[in-house]
Design goal:
about 240 residues; Rossmann fold; about 25% strand; about 35% helix; alpha/beta; 9 helices
């Protein structure tokens, strides 16, 4: 596994009269779990879509190392992305879905079984997806992101729908991934949960980065993530 630093510098995106992102900058280094934090509508998902080449920024750059996602030689083998719940045909099985995506990405068919095992889906691999819970669909989305054995994971709200055991499993999985040198960028508005996962915090409010630092730096301030969030977002709103 080879992680790559994610580098976002001054990105902006406007939709009509709405500034979805105004000025977001941060680095998510390899070997760390970086949390992109903000309220709903703060610009987290748009930032991730710009990073993955799904949305064209009006200004700024978003790259993996020095390379844009669209210029990567092996995109799905470099970056595993999870932006929405998996949406395969409901009549497909999880195994069929994974094998299809493995073929589309040019990855060995055996990866379907390997990622099913890694994400706890083996027992359910031959079940129709129409019967999956939200949590199982989240696991399927993560399994799909892992098919190319990437060194970078970009995950938007991956703990949504997971039960407490699933959340504990996700924490351990992401910690191990980062400890092996991988890069993890995870967005969430669930502040208490992120505290247990991330090494670095990037706080976004109304489309701008308002704080960027490590958990250690946060502790030096005498703050926890929740208090920092309310201090800075309240400050911005007042300003």
């Amino acid at each position: 596994m080879t992680g790559i630093d994610i580098e976002v510098a001054g990105i902006a995106k406007r939709y009509g009269a709405v500034d979805a992102v105004r000025d977001v900058s941060f680095t998510a280094p390899a070997g760390h779990v970086t949390g992109l934090v903000g309220a709903n509508g703060a610009g987290k998902s748009t930032t991730m879509r710009i990073l993955l080449g799904l949305v064209r920024a009006d200004a700024g750059t978003a790259r993996f190392g020095a390379i844009r996602y669209t210029d990567l030689a092996d995109p799905s083998g470099t970056v595993g992305a999870m932006l929405d719940l998996a949406s395969p045909h409901p009549a497909m099985t999880a195994r069929g879905h994974l094998r299809t995506y493995a073929a589309l990405g040019g990855h060995p068919a055996r990866r379907a079984d390997e990622v099913a095992e890694a994400t706890g889906l083996t027992e359910y691999a031959d079940r129709r997806i129409r019967g999956f819970s939200t949590g199982m669909r989240q696991r399927l989305s993560l399994a799909t992101a892992l098919l190319g054995d990437p060194g970078v994971l970009v995950l938007d709200e991956p703990s949504n729908g997971l039960d407490p055991a699933g959340i504990a499993w996700l924490r351990a999985f992401l910690r191990e991934f980062a400890d092996r040198g991988g890069t993890v960028l995870i967005s969430s508005h669930q502040l208490a949960e992120l505290t247990h996962i991330v090494d670095r915090v990037v706080l976004v409010d109304r489309g701008r980065t308002v704080w960027d630092g490590t958990q250690a730096q946060l502790a030096e301030r005498g703050d926890d993530l929740e208090s920092l969030f309310f201090q800075l977002t309240t400050m911005e709103a007042s300003a």
